[in-house]
Amino acid sequence: MILSVKNLSIEIDGKPAVRGLTFYVAAGEVLGVVGESGCGKSMVNMALMGLLPDGVNASAEQMEACSVDLLRAGPRDWRALRGGKMAMIFQNPMSALNPCLTVERQLKESVLQARTGMSRASARAEALRLLDRVGIAHAGARLKSYPHELSGGMAQRIMIAMAVASAPQLMIADEPTTALDVTVQAQILQLLEEIRRDTGMALILVSHDIGVIEQCAHRVQVMYSGQIVESGDVGEVIASPCHPYTRGLVAAQPGRSGLPPKSRLTTIDGSVIPITEEVEGCRFRLRCSRTDHRCEQPQRMRRAAANSYRESRCHW
Amino acid sequence: MATTLLGVTLLAFFLIRVAPGDPVLLLIGERGSDPEQYREMVVRLGLDNSLIVQYLQFVVSALQGDLGVSVVSQQSVIGELLARWPATIELGVSALLIACLLGVPAGVIAAVYRNSVADFLIMSVSIFGYSIPVFWWGLVLIMCFSIGLDITPVAGRIDILYDIPPVTGFMLMDTLAPQVVQEYGFSAFGSALGHLVLPALTMATIPLAVFARTTRSSMLEVLSEDYVRTARAKGLSEFRVIWRHAFRNALIPIVTVGGVLFVTTVITGAILTETIFAWPGVGRYIVNSVYARDYPVIQASILLIGIFVVLVNGLIDYLYGAINPAVGRRDSAS
Amino acid sequence: MQARIAIGFRLMPGGWGNIGFLVLVSLLLLGFIAPLLLDLSPYRISAELLAPPSWNPLSVPVLGTDDLGRDMFARLVYGARCSLGIGFVVVAVSLVIGVGLGLLAGVYGGWLDALIMRLVDLLMCLPSILLAIVIVAVLGSGLGNAIVAVTIIGIPRFVRVVRSMTIQEMQKTYVMAAFASGSSRLRVLWSEVLPNCVPPVIVQAALGFSDAILEIAALGFLGLGAKPPVAEWGAMLADARPFIESHPLLVVMPGACILLTVLSFNLVGDALRDRLDPKLARL
Ligand SMILES: Nc1ncnc2c1ncn2[C@@H]1O[C@H](COP(=O)(O)OP(=O)(O)OP(=O)(O)O)[C@@H](O)[C@H]1O
Ligand code: SF4
Ligand SMILES: [Mg+2]
Fold first, then answer.
1. B226 with A95: CB under 8 angstroms?
2. pTM, to two decimals
3. Domain enclosing residue B103, as ranges
4. CATH architecture of A3-85+166-312
5. Fold observed for domain C13-34+68-276
6. Pocket of ligand 1 (CB under 6 A)
7. Nearest to A281 by CA among A207, A233, A225, A213
């Protein structure tokens, strides 16, 4: 396992937000994470990278990445991990690059972080190679650009170049394509897939878009309001979702659920409760269409079928 | 910029025409009692022309460096002002340096350790500094350091023992001129520095507080930006994250405020501080001219200070572009 | 009763601002009520010149007397009345003019806007104390003219916030809808635009108060504002300068009063800004 997490909980200002997450990622695997805005996906990613903001704290029974015990990691270990075996790319590439520094300086910084003591010239050569690797033409000229001179897709490619500079074993991509045009989205996803195949790194791919997950991921876990509500093999989960929330998500996809693509999209009624709010019983209860008396009890993850590892947080 | 300059010239021009009393008398003082001279002055000043022509004449002669003659000293105003300018700049720049060197790091510390004891202390001191009446603060410093501890002089730029030929007008430089060093050694420089300390500290107080506050809020804003998170995600040390990635971006508002402060420190500070410390600069000269109702001097001072402000603003715009490569693009995009 | 308490709390600026607020209320009481209750005169001359403070609230020159034998406590109390009173007049007048000009500039735009904003820029780019001195130089020195000068300098801050708020509001759909439905301009301004300007204007008023008090005191100190017998903190400070070595307290006290007042206004202003200005409060 490249990453294994057991009972990860995150508190925001002392109030529980993410509740008891247990999951793992195997080497070379793509784990898709879906869930609507505000359900805590980014919080979990930040916890994995040790980058939680002030006032937000994580605790867990076990949290291990790339054979490092994250629960016992000090600032130095975290830094080594971040600039080394783990890397992350973000939702909005334009704001994730420092507007005051050239691409060259930011990229070389990543290169030198991974390989201390490298000469300036070879760092530059490595930066050029990386730009080439992520499919940027005229790499030499691009090195001199400032972020505001780049398009969104190009900026995300550079973020990816920075992330792979250290040849990470695990990359976390937090909605890497949400801010991009559809055509660019596909290219970026393809690039990530290529790099993963070449380097054998594992990838956590976060997205709102279950279509993206279906296309790229091996396994998927669906999050709702700070909990994993369903997990399993991508194909199986999408073909026959167990949890009512997943069902809603899948049905909300255009061109699914037997409806012709242009017809009105199914949406899940009601709005999300704040992640820090306490709910008695199942957290999806207020929006679920299949509630009965059993839903008043807190739900735990159950095996959905005897012969598979699919799990769902619903009694059905 | 251009409109500001225009406004300043109009302000200076109308100053004496709005003031109660005969502008001729205001401009030439007692000499006006002689009817011969009075008529000559009316013609020379073009007061028999229309206002527009008068204004143009005023601007043209100002461009030629002729801003009239002081009523009090009968000397060329521009000469008198320029002779005092270096003293004011020397004081203002020293004060701003102190303010910047102490205020900016203090603001960064306050932002990085937000809500800590250090933050609380820095912000408390800063709001005091921000509210302090400069003229009183100068007196308090004199009480403590000159009267109480007797370690700094009370007034002037240098001990009267020293006879320093003005070369640059900047006392710190002039006292290091070879012949001065030959004659007095470095004691003249020491004396000049000693005289500079209290007024510079007095003047530095308000800008220091403003620097600390601006830096803190600017840093707080930048520290929550995505690219700071990226920098951390790269595994950079906190020191690099703060100084290389955050601070550089936080500089933009700091530079802007620094420019405004430069103007207000140099001028406002000069007017009050120079009066307290008998510092022979432009500020004290202006105040004395107001006492003496020396209108040509007041008029010329407004004009010169207006030009100074415009120049400083130009410099700030330039620095702004140098720090932030996206300036042009961003402005047009938003 | 509870509702009333709640309103009282809503008026409090919050945080450190509350302390500033309480100090200001005390100063106000001291300046305007104490003279009614106690036998205080800032001008009465006693035989005891430069008496040291007794620091005993029951014995009469609590804070001593000045070089003419006038009761320092009485003079400081009247100074509070003077500073707060003048501050109020200055802020009130510049607020009314500034808000009016800001609305004009924001609503009508065009050359009127350009003219007003150029004037505002001019006033803002020159250091305020210089402007005050120049205006006093033109009008002649004296407390009245100093008040006029400081009022003029206080106008731009209001023009700017009101203008930008107005322009912002005018682009909102409901304001456009109000115009489109034929409501008169004035009516829309009064009912839709002006209420939104209130919070930033209050913040500016608090900060304007502190600037006005500082500037009036500075002019008094330079001898261009209040003239000697008047019990004004700045002028008192100038009067006391010759005694800086022998009787430092005479210098310390009026300045400390100015500092306390200005500090309180700044605390209130900052707290209000944090609370009322959503853009800054976000930090
Ligand atoms: N710095 C913070 N302090 C306190 N609460 C926060 C902070 N950042 C986010 N939150 C809260 O945590 C919750 C989870 O946010 P998170 O960013 O993890 O959601 P997300 O699933 O990534 O959503 P999105 O799809 O929009 O990125 C949100 O409801 C938000 O209100
Ligand atoms: S447990 Fe009940 S409420 Fe929760 S998802 Fe299942 S059916 Fe819906
Ligand atoms: Mg997110």
1. yes
2. 0.83
3. 91-278
4. 3-Layer(aba) Sandwich (3.40)
5. MetI-like fold (1.10.3720)
6. A 12, 17, 35, 37-43, 53, 55-56, 208, 275
7. A225
